[in-house]
Amino acid sequence: MEKSRVLVVGGTGYLGRRIVKASLAQGHETCVLMRPEIGLDIDKLQMLLSFKAQGARLLEASLDDHRGLVAAVKQVDVVVSAMSGVHFRSHNLLLQLKLVEAIKEAGNVKRFLPSEFGMNPARMGHALEPGRVSFDEKMEIRKAIEEANIPHTYISANCFAAYFVPNLCQMRTLLPPKEEVHVYGDGNVKAIFMDEDDVAAYTIRCIDDPRALNKTIYLRPEENILSQNELIAKWEKLSGKVLEKIPIPSEEFLASIKEIIGKKRLLYSTQRFSTSGWTST
Ligand code: NDP
Questions:
Q1: Is the Cβ atom of 120 under 6 angstroms away from ligand 1?
Q2: Which positions fall inside the NmrA-like domain (predicted)?
């Protein structure tokens, strides 16, 4: 079977660069969107040039340039978006909807993989703010894809390992705790930790697989399903050091999230009323 030609959008990102690498490694003709907005970002430019040196083609278009985007999409069979889900939320929703519009108009795409790669948003209706908004936005993108009858695959990648494993699931750090570790609830809830290169490799495996057409694919290797207690035990064995366990009861954890949200809202309303002309919503 002939391998699909792939366009990666968001190719210089944390996951996107791995998707470009996986697509090239699995023998796909690989294009990467090069946005003029990168301007003087020398790191991005050099990364794009290194993709080119490895055999990728760079297609120039802005996500705000509908015609340019349609022309880029027409050159491939599959589009994989790995656009940011965190830093520019609402703006990125808009940009991803523009990508959906371009794919709809181009009419040639055999498979679109939107930027999901986390929990399945269809099952996250109970999620709390502030995380909640990214699930809601991912559902809006799904709706647009399905209304436009675009063939798709949604990748559910659970927890990226580098964000959750070395820190033993501690908040606000990526490094291992040295003396004590916060244990959330009873520490026995299982989570699925995925190596980011594996996420990229399986994502590319799915694009030509008819079984993944219009489906959600769950990445969950059995050995990667661990509770926080199991993760801590593995680290203690590796490091040879026993950590002090500080239990954080679920009510306390939820209350601390609500407090952070409250503080953010207060900061937001203070900024709204003290900065003239600041009208962002
Ligand atoms: P990044 O923050 O690394 O950004 C990816 C790309 O998005 C950038 O390289 C850039 O593309 C594009 N981008 C960012 N901001 C803008 C903007 N304002 N306008 C246009 N393009 C923009 O993303 P991640 O790799 O961290 O996230 C990719 C996906 O993975 C998301 O859906 C996210 O939710 C998910 N994720 C899941 C995690 C998990 O634990 N399951 C953890 C982290 C992310 P360009 O290359 O064109 O400049």
A1: no
A2: 2-260
